[in-house]
Design goal:
The chain has 251 residues and is mainly α. It has one domain. The protein has twelve helices and two strands, in the order ααααααββαααααα. Strands 1-2 form a two-stranded antiparallel sheet.
Length: 251
């Protein structure tokens, strides 16, 4: 579960830059998106954040780390599938090895033994896979409870939901939704400090989150090497004025 503040906090830590596009181009639904953003923010401030603060105070660090590692190990299954779909065999092999080591020696993922062995965690999802194969981003969207997204990433989320290993590991719906809730609280608890920085730094959190999310996703799709933006130093009107000034005067 990704509410708006969670995704924003992640992006705050990752760094951000402004995209080379006007808000009208990548956020044509800004009025509706802002309404959904405010709804998500209310839910976070009144429900998830207070619960996460209690969780952070009560749960011992060792147990908290184990819970985080467990969900991370399940997430590696989705990463593996998407690395295969993106034709990245070396990363897929590394992901498979991570899952094997962490599930067996790491006691079903509670202990991350793979990273010290030189098997780094990757970040791939179905939205990135669609982007890898040339699907356009589409308009920016803010989804209820899930937070920032785009048309492409929203479609990718549907694919992730269908192959979610957490649902396969849960014997019934109640267990699944309970696990989703624990995962959301655990994630939010890990971002309490980051969200506080965001509240202090951003003049318009909505704009910050939008630009950070779009830039972050662009960076992920291109594996950290996005294409350089094309800057228009002069607009057409200014170009015409320069041409007129440079033209020789007729006698």
């Amino acid at each position: 579960m990704r509410i708006a503040i969670i995704a924003t906090a992640v992006l705050l830590l990752s760094g951000c830059a402004t995209l080379n596009a006007s808000p009208e181009e990548h956020d044509p639904f800004e009025r509706v998106n802002r309404s959904v953003y405010r709804f998500n923010d209310v839910v976070d401030r009144n429900v998830l954040k207070p619960v996460a603060e209690v969780y952070d105070d009560v749960v011992p660090n060792a147990i908290d780390t184990g819970i985080t590692n467990f969900f991370s190990n399940l997430g590696d299954v989705l990463v593996l599938v998407n690395n295969i779909l993106q034709a990245k065999p070396r990363q897929a092999l590394s992901d498979f090895s991570r899952i094997v080591w962490n599930t067996t020696v790491g006691l079903f993922g509670l202990i991350d033994v793979a990273t010290p062995l030189g098997l780094p965690k990757h970040n791939e999802d179905f939205g990135q896979t669609l982007g890898y194969w040339g699907v356009e981003t589409g308009p920016y969207l803010v989804l209820p409870f899930l937070g920032p997204s785009t048309v492409r990433d929203g479609a990718g989320s549907v694919g992730s939901w269908y192959v979610d290993p957490l649902s396969e590991a849960s014997p019934d719906h109640n267990t699944y939704y309970g696990a989703v809730a624990v995962k959301a609280v655990d994630t939010r608890a890990g971002l309490l400090k980051a969200s506080s920085l965001l509240e202090q730094a951003a003049l318009d959190p909505y704009v910050f989150m939008r630009e950070a999310y779009l830039q972050h996703r662009l960076n992920l799709v291109h594996d950290g090497a996005p294409p350089a933006p094309e800057f228009d130093i002069f607009d057409e009107e200014f170009d015409e004025e320069l041409d007129e000034e440079a033209a020789p005067e007729t006698p």
